[in-house]
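User: I've been going back and forth on whether these two constructs are worth ordering. Before I decide, could you fold them both?

Assistant: Sure. I'll take them in the order you sent them. The first construct and its structure tokens:
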Amino acid sequence: MQERLQKILAHAGVASRRKAEEMIQQGRVTVNGHIITELGSKADSAEDVIKVDGKKLRSAQRHVYILLNKPRNVMSTSSDPLGRPTVLEYVKDAIKERVYPVGRLDFGSEGLLILTNDGEFTKFMTKAGGIPKVYHVKLGGQPVERDLVRLRSGAYIDNERLAPCEIRLLKGGENPWYEVTLHQGRNQQIRRMFQSVGHPVEKLRRVRIGALEDDKLRPGEWRLLTEHEVSQFQREFKK
């Protein structure tokens, strides 16, 4: 059965569907020896010879879902041209399947990150307005309430309107901690939000993805999601 090429790559665990589209446009994918660069092109994974970077595509044997506590100063990408450490280095010796991060955490941020080879799972988890994510944030200085109200309601930052979010104080002081719940994931969104009101982020840690949390995982540690945890997300997919 013919399907869109990016969907085939995602199902095979090569990358998320969005990343697969980039790979196609970059000329890294061939079908029966022909380079494919047009999005929307179709193929039959059972009949056609599909290669990525010259390597024959193999269907993912099983879907894998990993919860990693990403340390600071680690890239949440599959590779890095500057040679910085990536999240894959923590699982590569134990996980045979080719997995990739679901979304991103900034290089200097830490906390929970999911790795998988399930393209449909990734597509849902990263879509706008999808799964809420909760962060604990330490600030340089105490924002005034009117600035917090503006950020909660969805402020304009860098000519972009951000979605409303929840912000509540966890611990006061000269450098307070706040809990921030986001319903969208823009590039360095939390850092940009607080920088815009004059209080830069000093530490940022993701502590929950949807209902998923695990305060027992230390930085650099990981575990497989349970069947119950995966099914919880899958029920959200169907809503």
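The second construct, handled the same way:
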Amino acid sequence: MRLISAAKMRSAQNAIGNMDPYRKGLRDIMLSLPRSGACEKIIKPYVTEGKGGGTAVLLVTSNQSLCGSFNVNLVKAFERMELTKDNTTVYAIGRYGFRHLQREGYVCVDLCHLSAHADYDSSVALSKELVEGFMSGRFSKVFMLYPHFKNAVSQPVTLENYLPMDAGFLGADADEEMDYIVEPSPEHMLETLLPMVLRLTLHTMLLDSTVAEHAARSMAMQTASENAEDLIQELSLQYNKLRQQAITSEILDLLGGQTNNN
């Protein structure tokens, strides 16, 4: 299991590495677009927090166990958010989080299939649903709660705003703007790019969570193997001691029998 998880972790890391240039390119385009009143009108719905709507939380756990405290830390982080059950919708990616929060009485949307297979088409469909819920006023906030892959031994729980978006990311606070000629228009580019950025952000998060899960499972299996080896050594030592005591006892019995015969 450790070797399988390590192989899957490297595969997911390669997928993220292949996506990074594309993600950075989108960000550069967003930052370089000239701003106008029409552009600000397009951006405003994405960066303005809704009022009166509920809260949506995209919670990523794993479908399988044997990964240490990976799932427990995520559920505890969700509980620390102190959300009301009647005003919260949980999009649960992973059986552990889905089953736990469903028992607690939260409204949960079952997306457990994405925990094992985070394909881009599914990410696009989920992103569209969340954006439509935010734009329609159903959700005033959308959060992503997921494990971030920092390194092979550290997967910190991360809480991020998905919607409303950060205005700084959209270039609203950029120091300077490049003088590009944009065809057909900056407004048309923004209308196209904003949904693409949201889809890519969500898909990257899912890939990051996949890497973190496999890293946690690989480390847990390595720890389990080391503990098993230590246990084998302790039991072997105990066995040898008992065997030596039995041999010594038999020798003493034989010597005692010879002494009695003499």
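Notes on the second construct follow. Strands lie at 54-60, 88-93, 107-110, 139-147, 157-163. The first helix runs from residue 2 to 32.
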